């Protein structure tokens, strides 16, 4: 450890370096953490962003726990108190709510990106399967969260969930009693237990399996996502809903957007078990076995037409059913039931029609993509950076849209003013975070212009024989002072205490055999080996003979 | 050095010793399974089982055949606890109905009375009995499910479209003592007996 502590550093920096070096014994060093020094597409690290949002949810949720009361008669009132009277309660509740939506959204985007890029197969099956389970649990987590407010909408959601559980053949009623208890009082308390402890702990446990070894932590993007959550909280503050009263007819409520797809099926009035349990179950099961049915040898979606078409189909169906779940016949003269029920024949015909349509669409896309590839091969390279050229008409349309958005924001600000500017401060914090993200990005962009693309942070610390650590620093100092291998096979502390010795050690340990040699070699053998090539050979022979 | 052996992934044979170990472990587990009260922790047992309970009207008195009006209904809490919060629970509210005269409500035995769970089988709002002429039925304020007071079966609205047992209200059995006081018999919370609140009952 001594090598990392340069005398130039002040004591604080030395403390941090000492702590960082001490982390070597922890699990974190098994992960390859990169802080990109240039813009990289956020599609590649959507999982990390989801995790960051999960942490935000954990922190805000812990703060909400201080005030929330999971009691039948007080749940709604306590949330009301958080929202209206407790200082910063409004902000924390809004961040919590919008972060939950962001987490579900990011998880879905993450899943589809991995799906279309084909990264879920070939030894990534465990990551995919655990990811799907995490996704389902995430939705359950979000679902239990908005249920424990116990507003009208929450009651609707709870009763639908309970009746769906009930509808499962044979085990259903017992399952309902086991998970929901008996009556609303139990529901609120149990959903609270699920929401704040059981599901998060299950999520954390699964995340240990789900984390790949290569992680990207892009500070500006994380900042941007956090800022966007706050911005949304500022522009669209979440309302309280009405307190549930069993004697008052509730208004029409729809569930959260990630469940309206399911809701549209339920509204078709067909059998509860089929529409509410079997269809989503089939969807999840298909996703789970996806890497095992995808037999294509290639990864790109262009080379996997059927799988890509399946993905497009699922997206199209999710979008259609989600919209349909939100849609309620505006004709108020009709009875409520008539407005709510969706004609099952109509619904299922549309769903069936979407399959050939999306297959055709995928075929078209692949054809176009292949054509474009062919053309780019024959026509040499076009100009690398073509300026954005939009026709004047489109520029005008974009301009009008932006002005419309501006007007909308002004109206939102006006309403914020009326409601005591609470959400306006949230809005401002969001803007500040977004600006910070932009500034960070520009700073990084300017700083990294002559440098390489990605800088591996872990390369700066001494390596103790793990060949998986950074390779960026290699090649610079190889000619400096080649040590004999006999030195590197000694105790690691003596080597790393030499100035610059850690770099030289890296070059030796590119060979995986040399990394193992200190444990296996006996002192007598190392004393006989004098040249640099023999000890590695002898160590290979020992490993092969012992194992 | 045995821990350096690669794990057995290739589908190789299990040694006899390992197999016996596995058998012994499985046997030990199986021996004790019948003595564990599986899953009894999770469900919340309904209290007040074993003995009959009063039909306690909102004014605190016990319902009596001689005083309770024909074609009339009251909300009764069952099982009643000392906890205000639990008594406010929808799942403990029951509609105690004396049937209209044309359905046999003027008799002075238990057949003149009905007691159904007030939780609508559709989406758990609280329905109630409407004694007006031309109605004389249970109606849910939320989505208009209607219940037949004789059987507790939904005959209109979304609840009537649900498959059995989710179209018949759970029901409590009643008995009348010598003084005419009405009592609730200990229920059996099963779909084929008294039914499950919020879920329903098979009409037998």
**Helix segment tally of chain A:** 22
- H-E string of chain B: HEEHEEEEEEEE
Write out the CATH superfamily name of the domain at 45-258 in chain A.
Cytochrome Bc1 Complex, Chain C
Could you tell me the mean pLDDT of chain B?
A: 84
The structure class of chain B reads alpha+beta
Question: Class of the domain at 45-258 in chain A in CATH?
Answer: Mainly Alpha
- Secondary structure tally, helices of chain B: 2
| Chain pair with largest interface | A-B, 36 and 36 residues
What is the CATH architecture assignment of the domain at 53-184 in chain B?
Answer: 3-layer Sandwich
Distance between the termini of chain B: 70 Å
Provide the CATH topology of the domain at 45-258 in chain A: Cytochrome Bc1 Complex, Chain C
Strand content of chain A: under 5%
Q: How much of the residues of chain B is beta strand, in percent? A: 15-25%
Largest sheet of chain A: 3 strands, mixed
H-E string of chain A: HEHHHHHHHEHHHHHHHHEHHHHHH
The gross shape of chain A turns out to be: globular
- Based on CA atoms alone, the radius of gyration of chain A comes out at 29 Å
What does this structure look like?
The complex is a heterodimer of chains A (547) and B (204). Chain A is an all-alpha fold. Chain A has 22 helices and 3 strands. Chain A is globular and about 70 Å long. The two termini of chain A are 33 Å apart. The C terminus of chain A is likely disordered. Chain B has a domain of 132 residues: Rieske Iron-sulfur Protein, CATH 2.102.10.10. Helix content of chain B is 10%, strand content 18%. In chain B, the strands form 3 sheets. Chain B has a 4-stranded antiparallel beta sheet with strand order 5-6-7-8, with no helix packed on it. Chain B has a 3-stranded antiparallel beta sheet with strand order 1-10-9, with no helix packed on it. Chain B starts with 15 loop residues before the first helix and ends in a 20-residue tail after the last strand. The interface between A and B is large, with 36 and 36 residues.
